[in-house]
Amino acid sequence: MHDHPTECLVIVPSSRAARKLERTMAGMMSQSGWLPQVKTLNDVLRDSTGLSTLDPLAAQAELFSCWRALQEVGDEHQSSAEARSFQSFMPWGRIALRDFNEIDQHLLDASRVFQNLCDIEGIEEWSFADEKKLGNAQRSFLEQYLQLGPLYDAFQKRLLEHGLGYAGLIARS
Fold first, then answer.
1. What region does 11 belong to: left with phi over 0, alpha with psi -120 to 50, or beta?
2. Do residues 78 and 85 make contact, with C-beta atoms less than 8 angstroms apart?
3. What is the pLDDT of residues 4-49, one digit of tens each?
4. Which helix (H) or strand (E) holds 40?
5. Nearest alpha carbon to residue 104 among 39, 23, 167
6. What are the beta bridge partners of residue 12?
7. Rounded to 5 degrees, what angle do the CA atoms 88, 90, 91 make?
């Protein structure tokens, strides 16, 4: 053990591991004393950035709010924005949040990732070269993919303004 355990910080992968390590270290001590600080990596990142973690449902609500705000800016998407409720947005929102989290945790360039996703999906499913020949489902699909970049930027900006974040954004920060 270190001579001054209170000056040490032990970073572990989970809260369960932190509790187990604290119990094990306490059991090894021959007399009363102080243990080092034991924190998860997420706790250390959250402490260093000052951002609070947003729970998943609140994250979806914020994402939906950002998405609606973006829809109001673009006149051509107005009818689809009015047609999509929060309930119908949730499945797509969950996927978008998962993608945003992965992008941030791996420090990827979001605009390049979204462009690559759109290109890959377009090649696999349809050719988007002639938008006039697209059906309603194809057009809706394309619009969703094209919205990911602006939505990602607006969502990050809003969260950071309010001192909030999800795991990936906190790690990126």
1. beta
2. no
3. 778 899 999 999 999 999 999 999 989 988 999 999 998 999 999 9
4. strand 37-40
5. 167
6. 40
7. 90
Query: What is residue 126's three-state secondary structure?
Result: coil
Average pLDDT score over the chain? 85
Is 80 exceeded by the pLDDT of residue 3? no
Paired strand residues for 37: 9
Binning the chain into helix, strand and coil, the percentages to the nearest 5 are 70, 5, 20
Three-state SS annotation for 48-112: HHCCEECCHHHHHHHHHHHHHHHHHHCHHHHHHHHHCCHHHHHHHHHHHHHHHHHHHHCCCCHHH
Q: Tokens for 122?
A: 């377009």
What pLDDT is recorded for position 123?
52
Residue 158 has a pLDDT of 97
Could you give the CA distance from residue 158 to residue 34 in angstroms, rounded to a whole number? 41
164 has which bridge partners? 52
- The H or E element that residue 121 is part of is helix 110-125
The identity of residue 131, as a single letter, is E
Residue scoring higher pLDDT (3 or 81): 3
Asked if residues 11 and 39 have their Cβ atoms less than 8 Å apart, the reply is yes
